[in-house]
Amino acid sequence: MQLADLDDIYDYIQPIPRWLMHGACLFTETEAWDRMVSRVDCKPDRGRITISGFRRPDALKVFGRITIMSALFQHTMIYDVWHQLGVQFAQSTLINIQVSTTHLGSRTLKIYWLTDQGWSKRMRDRAGGIEAIFALIKKAAVLDDRDTVCVITNKDDGSESDPRLVQAHFRHYEMMPHNSKGQNRFRHYHQLVHCAALNSYTPDIRWIETVLGIDGKTQRIARTGQEVYQSLMRLSIRDPRSQHDVTLVVMDKDVAEWLPQWFEPANQVEVTEIDSTGVMRRKGNPGRPSVGDRPMTAAERQARRRRRQRDQPHT
Predict the structure, then answer these.
(1) 5 in any annotated domain
(2) What is the pLDDT of residue 286?
(3) Which of 106, 280, 282, 302 is most buried, taking the most CB atoms under 10 A from its CB?
(4) How many angstroms separate the CA atoms of 160 and 150, rounded?
């Protein structure tokens, strides 16, 4: 921390030794790391790396009992990762919470989705930016323009301090932060558009898939699905006295189809696709190539590339 006064780069790397001191497991993409330390690579993106990680469960061994209180805990990243590392979770006998669903009463929950490819900033940009996404949602007429729409975007698309892009498309809007857990100031609203891409970087997703066996869909639910659920539960849907129907627009089909199980009666939850033809352009085959039922490793992808080059006709 003392070196931060000499060069602001130390502000960026300062968390890394702290994470290591607290027993975190860190990982980064080997190719990007090698390019960063290389003295011969002079491309503009040299030095652009991501370092991700998770806290090891070993530090909790000193406690006789650990109680974790979290909504839908079995669908979180900490559960997925620690379960793969051998941690055995059991239902608490001290705090008995059996109800995992929200009763809608006479209300209807309408959930709309835009893509089955896995939402990302890259897909947003290929679609023409967040303005094109907002225009698509407006054209679908799934929202009541007379009522307030809560909106969650990536920070480069808008925030509570800079809502200009949202304001240009939604006459009555309310910006919501990414983390709204425990907040009650949104409970009188009934509409939510969640278009933030909360995925990790692709190399990080691949690492977790390869090393821990947690596939990309499960990771998306544990990140984006969790946050969408938490944000939705800030609205009037959490108030059993409310009579208003609730409308949610999400980007991912996976998330839209995962959410209904947490609300009842089931026949009062509607999941519908918004036609995104001409906006959500598919670039190449979706996902990564696979071998059997698992993704290809980096070595297998490289070997496949060499085979293709070898089999190409020479002129």
Answers:
(1) yes
(2) 45
(3) 280
(4) 11
